[in-house]
Task: inverse folding
């Protein structure tokens, strides 16, 4: 079963997003490409939600943010070890919600 198949397709339920992120984090060591795809997908979800400024997203972000932050830190470390500096910089930049909001504006 792939990482993405572990949750309902298109779900924005915070628990589904958390499970997806935790699966991506666990997969970083063995399947970096798949894990990075999931991280990009979740980042796109965050960007859209920030753009729409939905109240539900604010609630969800509060639940998901600590896991998201931890996964991004893990991803940045994996990218550093593989000398993929550009991805590592992206992962670190995404850790700051204020920077994401400024980019979306």
Result:
């Amino acid at each position: 079963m792939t990482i993405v198949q572990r949750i309902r397709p298109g779900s924005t339920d915070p628990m589904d997003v958390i499970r997806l992120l935790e699966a991506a984090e666990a997969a970083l060591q063995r399947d970096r490409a798949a894990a990075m795809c999931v991280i990009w997908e979740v980042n796109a979800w965050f960007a859209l939600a920030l753009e729409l400024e939905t109240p539900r997203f604010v609630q969800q972000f509060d639940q998901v943010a600590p896991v998201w932050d931890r996964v991004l830190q893990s991803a940045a470390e994996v990218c550093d070890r593989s000398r993929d500096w550009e991805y590592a910089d992206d992962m670190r930049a995404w850790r700051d919600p204020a920077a994401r909001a400024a980019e979306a504006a």
Summary: The chain has one domain: 16-104. Residues 1-5 have pLDDT under 50 and may be disordered. The chain has five helices and no strands.
